[in-house]
Write a sequence for this structure.
């Protein structure tokens, strides 16, 4: 995909995440739209583009929130790299097993963040966060990611993208 | 060896990027957060959040409108009765206030003026694994500035972090970068309340200080951001470690942040 298209999608992710799910009474079950999109990008493009996309999404999320600049960039970059490497081994891109993979990646992301905060600031209830928040979040993120993946790998969308690419080549 | 670098140059570039990011994080842990890019990103995200939130509320309002209309007449009657009762109460309160003023000046106290405030609507909630912020629909054009306190009638919500003319980002009290000077209401013991993502924790509470589950923590006013006496959180867990001279105190915010729709920004 073109960098401009990436930039537009990533810039829209922050406000979409904040305003789409903000008013809904989901509590801890709010899906992480950034991670869900990143999973799709990593799976479809490979480890390098996945890592770069992860770093870009993470940096934008860092700037758009109160977190340390570069922290989400680092964790999301790792997530992008892992999904990219995973994508090379996945035969069926639409398989429901993606729900499990994305669930695990989301859990790892939350756990890494909680451990980092515990080391940096101390007194972070890592276990409570993990069971009270991370699992629910990972479950909804996994389902959202799978839905996005199904949507963008649908026959019509893929053929539309291919047609656009061919038109440009000619 | 050069062949290895040539073959894996993209992976090496990614590794360098990761190391740079890690270095960036470590300097901020020591020296504090970088805030250079916050304003342009808030400008873009605030604009889109305003559109989505506006559309969302318009649709919801349309649905609610009909239901409200049906209940309006009954509500109107009830409100008329309530206005009558409140007028009477208001007269009594005014009497008490003026009496209080007189007594205060007799005691030589400073007259307390209620702080000016702006009512804001929440247009976005951001909650990453490492931070908690909300976006509100008013900014510097309404007199809102950085570090202004954000509250509800129940208690403290957080403080303004970044401001643009029509939008502001609020750092919630549960954000790990947020600290509030508080007191235990019961015995006036002081402490620093720090955000811990979904709850808060009191820092540097000596082992010998009496803090109990259920204690209400109120602002002490010592941080210069929040006025004194606002409810902040309720102590939910106290853990004493024999090996440490401090105790770990966890507290739950009194404001239900997940249900927050409107708030008040206290203007300085």
């Amino acid at each position: 995909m073109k960098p401009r298209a990436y930039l537009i999608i990533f810039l829209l992710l922050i406000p979409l995440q904040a305003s789409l799910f903000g008013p809904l009474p989901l509590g801890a079950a709010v899906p992480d739209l950034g991670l869900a999109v990143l999973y799709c990008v990593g799976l479809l493009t490979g480890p390098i583009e996945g890592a770069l996309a992860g770093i870009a999404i993470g940096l934008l999320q860092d700037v758009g929130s109160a977190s340390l600049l570069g922290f989400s960039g680092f964790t999301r970059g790792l997530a992008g790299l892992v999904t990219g490497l995973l994508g090379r081994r996945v035969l069926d891109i639409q398989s429901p097993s993606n729900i499990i993979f994305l669930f695990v990646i989301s859990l790892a992301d939350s756990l890494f963040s909680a451990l980092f905060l515990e080391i940096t600031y101390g007194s972070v209830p890592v276990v409570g966060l993990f069971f009270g928040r991370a699992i629910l979040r990972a479950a909804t993120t996994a389902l959202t990611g799978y839905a996005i993946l199904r949507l963008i790998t649908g026959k019509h969308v893929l053929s539309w993208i291919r047609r656009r690419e061919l038109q440009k080549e000619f | 060896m050069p062949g290895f670098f040539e073959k894996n140059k993209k992976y090496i570039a990614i590794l360098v990027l990761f190391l740079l990011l890690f270095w960036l994080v470590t300097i901020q842990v020591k020296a504090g957060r970088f805030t250079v890019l916050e304003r342009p990103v808030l400008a873009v995200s605030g604009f889109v959040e305003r559109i989505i939130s506006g559309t969302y509320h318009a649709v919801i309002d349309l649905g609610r409108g009909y239901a409200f209309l049906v209940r309006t007449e009954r509500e109107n009657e009830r409100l008329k009765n309530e206005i009558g009762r409140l007028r009477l109460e208001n007269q009594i309160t005014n009497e008490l206030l003026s009496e209080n003023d007189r007594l205060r000046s007799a005691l030589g106290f400073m007259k307390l003026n209620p702080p000016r405030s702006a009512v804001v609507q929440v247009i976005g909630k951001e909650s990453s694994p490492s931070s908690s912020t909300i976006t509100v629909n008013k900014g510097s054009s309404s007199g809102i500035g950085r570090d202004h306190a954000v509250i509800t009638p129940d208690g403290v919500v957080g403080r303004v972090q970044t401001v643009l003319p029509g939008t502001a980002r609020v750092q919630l009290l549960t954000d790990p970068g947020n600290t509030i000077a508080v007191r235990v209401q019961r015995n006036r013991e002081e402490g620093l309340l720090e955000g811990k993502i979904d709850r808060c924790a009191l820092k540097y509470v000596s082992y010998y200080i009496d803090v109990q589950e259920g204690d209400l923590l109120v602002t002490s006013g010592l941080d210069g951001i929040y006025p004194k006496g606002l409810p902040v959180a309720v102590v939910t867990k106290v853990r004493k470690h024999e090996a440490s001279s401090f105790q770990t105190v966890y507290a739950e915010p009194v404001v239900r942040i997940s249900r927050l729709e409107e708030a008040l920004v206290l203007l300085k």
